[in-house]
Write a structure and sequence with these properties.
Keywords: Membrane, Transmembrane, Transmembrane helix. There is one protein chain. By secondary structure, the chain is an all-alpha fold. It has one domain. α6 runs antiparallel to α7.
Length: about 180
């Protein structure tokens, strides 16, 4: 009887709809949050291992940046500094770090800003794939189609590979 009154009484049916929507969203979040955490950790462990295996002493020293949310963007930029085009070769880590912070602080005020950050992140991601895999285009397309899920998995899978020498165009590593 109570259940029937929920759907016949107009005042309670709206409340029941809101409760049902909130319950559905709660259940969805219970399943999505562990997936997002797992993808974040895959990316972090992948970048950490790539940084530790790098010839760049700065990357080796600050490999733990891969686990800190905004510094992960810095780490990605540092990983691809020797592969990106010459104008960005010394600045990619700062572009990604500044973009992620600016996106957080000004993303709602400047609606175009997140798109610029995503464009630079995709640019860096492509060059990361190019540095570690001969099939960079395929990895990039899969990552793009899967909204980054494929990127996290690909970074984790590529973590123990050596950089491909033919991919490195700018030698910015410091020789000891």
């Amino acid at each position: 009887m109570i259940l029937q009154s929920l759907f016949t009484d107009p005042t309670t049916s709206a409340d029941a709809s809101i409760v049902a929507i909130l319950l559905g969203l709660g259940i969805l979040l219970i399943f999505l949050i562990p997936i997002f955490i797992a993808l974040y950790l895959l990316t972090a462990f992948g970048q950490f291992t790539m940084s530790k295996r790098s010839n760049n002493p700065e990357l080796v020293k600050y490999a733990w940046f891969a686990f800190v949310p905004f510094l992960q963007a810095y780490n990605l930029g540092a990983l691809v500094e020797d592969v990106v085009h010459r104008p960005l070769s010394g600045y990619m880590k700062w572009v990604l770090l500044g973009g992620s912070v600016a996106n957080l602080l000004l993303g709602t005020l400047l609606p175009f800003l997140p798109y610029i950050f995503v464009a630079f992140s995709l640019y860096a991601l492509f060059f990361l794939f190019k540095k570690y895999s001969p099939s960079a285009i395929m990895l990039f397309i899969v990552s793009f189609i899967t909204f980054g899920i494929g990127a996290a998995i690909a970074i984790f899978v590529l973590r123990k590979r050596d950089p491909r020498p033919e991919a490195i165009v700018n030698d910015t590593t410091v020789q000891a």
